[in-house]
């Protein structure tokens, strides 16, 4: 949900001279409380990451008993694979367009929900409706949109009735359309979290800032530009980086709507890696791809941490 | 004054129009899901499309609820999600207490590791998990799913619970210690009961993550005895690609737990959720 580190307490009593034994005891107690967490993170995070890095430098891992050291061969194979490069490009388009749209929709909806012109009950009802897409699991969202975007489905029917298209488009199987179709569905499914965070941030902007701006004779748009946006900037930046990271993790939506097809047009880094491992049983190349994905994510995470520090 | 009033009315009309358009964008697909689940299968693609069906029937729900294999998916999802929620809360309460009430070497480092765990892509982990879970004999078991789900529920839970405990005054635990109680007693007798609102928000979110998890459930289970609801929906899509009404009924039934939890705990949930994000 959030990558924010809470401020860890520094309020406990400083160790007085002669009390070092009790300080040591306190530290041991603290480690005792932490031990289940540390154990789980070591077994399920540290060990697996070491394992996958190890796999990525070997050949024939998992499926054969005697694997051999392969150097950077798996990396060369992945980085020269046209499918991988297509996946890289598609992922870049998918995550950047999704995040931009999440921001725009989330901000627009949050501002409408924050209006002083409407009563609390009306706004509460709209807020629930707006959060709805976020409450459905991706498997359900995939099924809903496969129904809606079917060539004989309701979206095509409406577009045909309006005269925007001549015949039903098969959105998920048209190579020119599929990437935009999955991106659109992801936009629909993902904006509410942006909206919730921005709504809370909007409610935290001091009203006297707006009053002062109103006294200066500014109009609505000027106040948005010079009060709202600067106040929201920290939240927008951290949410945007988080959203880029989360969206790059997206697997289920692609897998259940297009499976990466047609003709690689919606292949993502996640589906490429999955196919290498569990369809081709090329666990070594899959591991190299998985490590590259991890490194790319760490670059994004680095920007996230830096944006946090700047505040 | 009249112009001010007119402008206000215009602005209000504009906002309402915007809200309704946005509401249709968000809500219509879900209305369509509901409406399709009570149609007969022949009506699903009827031309022109009807939002309100004439042949209302609950046959699709009966078909899902009368099918032992589908019910098993629900049972599996409930078992896994409840176990993940309880275990996550237990482990995170202990860790949150350590972070909130103690200072110890490597505190910042351990905290940074926990925070960064959330950025690790699941697809990177799923390959070694496959090897690891098979080696541990946990392939196709509840425990394999529960443990792997906790990797993604635990960091958030620890962060939120630490933040929540930090807001509770230290005098609370000190009072227990003055009476001769230990830190352990203070945690479970005083802090945990006081932190219930925060724990509910964390618990609901944990349940949601586990209930919705797809990639690990897909790769670390094999038999229908262990499959969870998201995989069940996908299987239904593969097997009966024409039974749209049943797919929609299964989708609704599969969404009810999360919807119910959310609506019931809405206020606390949104409050708890944004508390972390906004302080960012």
Q: What name goes with the CATH superfamily of the largest domain in chain A?
A: MetI-like
| SSE arrangement of chain A, N to C | HHHHHHHHHHHH
Tally of separate helices of chain A? 12
CATH class of the largest domain in chain B: Mainly Alpha
Tell me, briefly, the overall form of chain B.
Answer: globular
As for the number of domains of chain A, it is 2
Task: Round the Cα radius of gyration of chain B to an integer and report it.
Answer: 24 Å
By helix and strand content of chain A, what is the structural category? mainly alpha
Give the strand content of chain A.
under 5%
The tally of strands of chain B reads: 0
Largest sheet geometry of chain A:
none
CATH-defined fold name of the largest domain in chain A: MetI-like fold
Biggest interface and residues each:
A-B, 106 and 107 residues
Assigned CATH superfamily of the largest domain in chain B = MetI-like
Domain ABC transmembrane type-1 (chain A): 88-304
Protein name (chain A): Sugar ABC transporter permease
InterPro entries (chain A): MetI-like (IPR000515), MetI-like_sf (IPR035906)
Organism (chain A): Micromonospora deserti
Can you give keywords for this protein?
A: 311 residues; mainly alpha; 2 domains; flat; B: 280 residues; MetI-like fold; globular; disordered C terminus; MetI-like_sf (chain A)
Structure description:
The complex is a heterodimer of chains A (311) and B (280). Chain A has 311 residues and is an all-alpha fold. Chain A has twelve helices and no strands. Chain A is flat, with a radius of gyration of 25 Å. Chain A has two domains: 20-56; 73-310, MetI-like fold (Orthogonal Bundle), CATH 1.10.3720. Chain A starts with 19 loop residues before the first helix and ends with a helix. With 280 residues, chain B is mainly alpha-helical. Chain B folds into two domains: 2-37; 59-278, Orthogonal Bundle (MetI-like fold). Helices cover 77% and strands 0% of the residues of chain B. Chain B contains 13 helices and no strands. Chain B has helices spanning 2-37, 59-65, 68-101, 107-117, 122-135, 142-167, 171-178, 183-194, 196-212, 215-220, 229-239, 244-264, 266-278. Classes of the chains: A mainly alpha (311), B mainly alpha (280). At the A-B interface, helix 1, helix 3, helix 4, helix 5 and helix 6 of A face helix 1, helix 3, helix 4, helix 5 and helix 6 of B.
